[in-house]
Design goal:
By secondary structure, this protein is an alpha/beta fold. It has helices spanning about 1-10, 30, 40-45, 70-75, 95-105, 110-120, 160-170, 175-200, 215-225, 245-270, 340-350, 355-360; strands spanning about 15-25, 55, 65, 80-85, 130-135, 150, 235-240, 275-280, 300-305, 315, 340. The strands form two sheets. Strands 1, 4, 5, 6, 7, 8, 9, 10 and 11 form a nine-stranded mixed β-sheet that branches. A two-stranded antiparallel sheet has the order 2-3.
């Protein structure tokens, strides 16, 4: 096992994994982490605001949506941090442009996560070093030394017979150079995955995943990480956050899916969370004032979550301007007071101190949150 792990990693005993969850559709930060201690929040959202008495208090100003109660232990044990008024410099309020800019990490070529995996002294090109749980590799992983999209372990397999695979493997077995190394790495990964798949995976520590795609993806993420396959980055999506109409009923199921999924993943991982960081992000937040049909329109500043090992206490990081009209931007949006790259910067630097962060986020002067 140790030899296989080292080979698949390409980085010796590297064990750290970054899991990136993208909430597509512009998740409302004031619904996920409402400013229940700010009187203007209740004034501007008279019908859709979260009541102060029902929120899971984070500090004197912020709370978690009560639908996220599954994450209360993570907050109390210092494993979950939230960042408010976070976003990018994009002000188009277009889903496509905002997502594109954020996933590329600015105007540079390729994706920020792909560059992170590439620009390191010990960059790994293992067949499973980067896994996108979906039907396609996201823009954030473009340019990675290696990236694989899958919906299940069955997706990572040759379509031919075992005889065909053995014949193909014999062609590359004694090959040297890049192609030989990559091919043999892939065959080793396939063999290891077959071992994993033949075992009936049972979540550890009494964790129970709900049904649905998001929970299934998180369950697979936990399985891949714990199997020691050399996975360094995993991406997955949770869509459906565009809440122009009837925001409460529209996003209630998603809020529960997000919280329950993350809580089950953390419980399943157990001690492995010491080597794992989960980042949750969205392309932008929503307008502060509710609209006439009980929804919210596209805005600017939103929320990010960072979940990892336990600390002293879960924190809310916010350069908070307040919700008075003069403190808002555009048609009435939360300003972006923390750039999303400044949240990612210290996380990436901790996961791989040898990463060339100037190449990961070019043309950005870091002010790490």
């Amino acid at each position: 096992m140790k030899e296989t792990k080292a080979y698949l990693h390409g980085n010796g005993d590297l064990q750290k994994t970054l899991v990136v969850v993208f909430l597509r559709g512009g998740a409302d930060g004031l619904a996920l982490v409402p400013a229940v201690g700010d009187d203007d929040y209740h004034r501007l959202r008279p019908r859709i605001a979260i009541a102060e008495k029902t929120a899971i208090r984070l500090d004197e100003r912020f709370g978690l949506n009560p639908l996220m109660s599954a994450l209360k232990p993570a907050v109390e044990e210092g494993a979950l941090n939230t960042v408010h008024c976070v976003g990018s410099e994009d002000d188009t309020r277009s889903h496509f442009e905002a997502q594109d800019l954020m996933e590329h990490g600015g105007r540079a070529g390729g994706g920020w996560l792909g560059r992170f995996l590439r620009f390191r002294e010990k960059a790994s090109a293992g067949a499973l070093s980067a896994v996108a749980l979906g039907t396609a590799v996201p823009e954030s992983l473009r340019g990675a030394p290696s990236a694989t999209a899958m919906r299940s372990i069955n997706d990572f397999a040759f379509s031919g017979s075992n005889d065909f695979v053995r014949s193909l493997q014999s062609l590359y077995q004694k090959q040297s150079g890049v192609f030989g190394a990559r091919a043999n790495d892939t065959f080793r990964a396939l063999a290891r995955l077959r071992e994993v798949h033949t075992k009936d995976y049972s979540p550890a520590n009494g964790a129970e995943y709900s049904s649905g795609r998001f929970a299934t993806d998180l369950r697979l993420a936990a399985q891949l990480i714990k199997a020691r396959l050399g996975v360094e980055a995993i991406t997955l999506d949770l869509g459906g956050w565009d809440s122009h109409i009837s925001q409460g009923p529209a996003i209630t199921p998603n809020i529960t899916r997000l919280a329950d999924g993350l809580a089950a993943f953390r419980q399943d991982m157990g001690a492995e969370m010491k080597h794992t960081t989960v980042v949750v992000m969205s392309e932008f937040g929503r307008r502060v004032t509710e609209n006439s049909v009980l929804g919210t329109d596209h805005g600017r500043g939103g929320v990010m979550f960072v979940m990892g090992q336990n600390g002293s206490k879960g924190r809310t990081i916010a350069n908070w301007p307040g919700l008075a009209r003069e403190n808002l931007v555009g048609p009435g949006d939360l300003p972006v007071t923390t750039n999303y790259r400044d949240v990612l910067f210290p996380i990436l630097s901790e996961h791989a101190p040898d990463a060339d962060m100037a190449k990961v986020f070019p043309d950005h002067k870091p002010e790490p949150a």
